[in-house]
Specification:
The structure is a homodimer. Chain A is built from 6 helices and 2 strands; from the N terminus they run ααααββαα. Chain A is mostly helical. Chain A has a single domain (25-148), classed as Orthogonal Bundle (Arc Repressor Mutant, subunit A), CATH 1.10.10. In chain A, strands 1-2 form a two-stranded antiparallel sheet. In chain A, strand 1 (94-98) and strand 2 (106-110) form a beta hairpin. The longest helix of chain A has 22 residues, at 25-46. Chain A binds a DNA duplex through residues 50, 52-53, 66-68, 76-84, 86-87, 102-106.
Chain lengths: 170, 170
Amino acid sequence: MVASASPASSPDPREPPPPARELSPVDGLAQLSFLVHGLLERRAAEHELSITQTRLLAILRDRTPTMNELARVLGLDKSSVTGLVDRAERRGLVARGPSAADRRAVLVALTDAGRALVAAAAARFEEDVAALLDPLPASERDELARLLTRLLVARAAEQGLDLFPSSGRP
Amino acid sequence: MVASASPASSPDPREPPPPARELSPVDGLAQLSFLVHGLLERRAAEHELSITQTRLLAILRDRTPTMNELARVLGLDKSSVTGLVDRAERRGLVARGPSAADRRAVLVALTDAGRALVAAAAARFEEDVAALLDPLPASERDELARLLTRLLVARAAEQGLDLFPSSGRP
DNA sequence: CAATCTAGTTGGTGGCGCAAACAATATAGT
DNA sequence: ACTATATTGTTTGCGCCACCAACTAGATTG
């Protein structure tokens, strides 16, 4: 798999297994990931955004981090973030500002235009994913949500994180 | 969501819904896709491969297409594929050859080194995804496979494709 | 205050993607 | 058969994205 729809495994040339065709969980997950990633890429492109630009704007919806924090959250080199923010700033989507606490630091914030753009792109993307889920009846969507949540929670726990930190109130 | 782990929706500040925390299907799918995509990216990087290079090699496991076919399957411009194959060829992972049927066409094939490399990367990636699925008992993995297959088959059908073309024998 | 550390930018390199222009070959039209 | 048109692949030129190494300005520590 990885990129193509290869039929799982079991090269058993006895009886052609009747119409019980199904992807292995591994194949299913891999293909689905490419599909969803592609959806996001296309929607972002409609607004002239790369995936990275979109991630940048999405992060800025909630905070006004320094360049350094951005680099950590995005998992990029500082210099990559410089260029990323340069291009977004040139388009008027974000703005750089000084930090009161540290005169070396630079704070990055969403402009109104940037906020509008990321809202539009996110809405379209969510429609796409909702449409992808459409063929399933509600009960199975719930079941899928349950299974996916279990996977993500378990993965997060392995890394010492709590996926629902805002649960028990402070 | 899009990039960060936001807790679904429902801003209802009445009673904190007890430990019934769950991601929406949309959020779950989006996060999972990023996770799996990141896994593949990391494994590919271990072998100095980009995602695109990995897709190229993965496709070549099954066929020996022309440059043009590669461009269609990868969803890239012809000129992008030229560069892609150039770099892979320089590393000895693929080889170009003439087509008997059309003297304009160029066939691309995996070398032994390329085959070994993609096999190694794919194996590691499949381990990753299998590990991701580990927290689920077998019965739920099957259920997940069933749901994902339904989604992917429905999506493929919308585009006039059959996900299992080799099903009914010719 | 000097040594050191940190935040951000700059400059260089390379992969990746597109579009436009091109040579070689195929295919159609007449 | 011969010309017009279409297709295959490459080249060139552009921009984005990512890295590293080197640098400046400002903070921190001795």
